[in-house]
Amino acid sequence: MEIMWSKTLRPGGKWSGIVGRGKLLRFTALEGGANLSMLLYNAWNPCERYNMPDTLKAQHTAYLTAGNVLMSDNGRVLASITADTVGWHDTISGYSFRHDIDRKYGVTRYQDERNEWFRSGQENFAVELVRNGLTLRDLVPPVNLFAKVSVDDDGQLIFHPNHCPQGGQVTLRTDMDLLLILSNTPNPLDPRSTYPSTPVQVDILPANPVGGDDICVTHCPENLRAFENTWEYYALRNA
């Protein structure tokens, strides 16, 4: 399948853009230990965006993998995970802040280090939100691709540092036109004392039409209803 577009996000890097429905977003960790934070919005009505609580409760899970969908707050499918070699993608630990980065990795400033300064997830997201006419009020919990965070019997969050191997890959299908925002910044629970340096490659490819036997459609009844809502939205939009 021909790659339509490709980009490598270096450590600390960020990117945003509109990706039309019916595409495959293939993310590849070029080294081990990746964490790519991701936000998704309806490209033409960004008031509709990825809703973490609805996504998790509808699919009876605390993490995402193949077969799962990323639901909007209007009960539609923004994107769905069609393939995954990693098996677990974090939904609950959020993004890093400036004070987290300074405390864990040392204080750096753009004025001194230029593009080698240590960025936080919040700062990257803030820049890309503003570039797309949004503000920090539009910042929501992200999906942290490649990261695993579980919960122990005492309710403590546990980060798994060796979860993502080099070459780990996850593929999402865009089921709506998306404003996609990416930040290659450390997971806030990552215990490493050196700033993680894992580049992530992003490829966009064409997707096949969604059939009734699709693994994401058939994953659970709630997914089917969300797909039906999405198909109805586009049937009326394109009428």
TrEMBL record:
<dbReference type="Pfam" id="PF09347">
    <property type="entry name" value="DUF1989"/>
</dbReference>
<feature type="domain" description="DUF1989">
    <location>
        <begin position="8"/>
        <end position="179"/>
    </location>
</feature>
<dbReference type="InterPro" id="IPR018959">
    <property type="entry name" value="DUF1989"/>
</dbReference>
<dbReference type="InterPro" id="IPR017792">
    <property type="entry name" value="UAAP1"/>
</dbReference>
<protein>
    <recommendedName>
        <fullName>DUF1989 domain-containing protein</fullName>
    </recommendedName>
</protein>
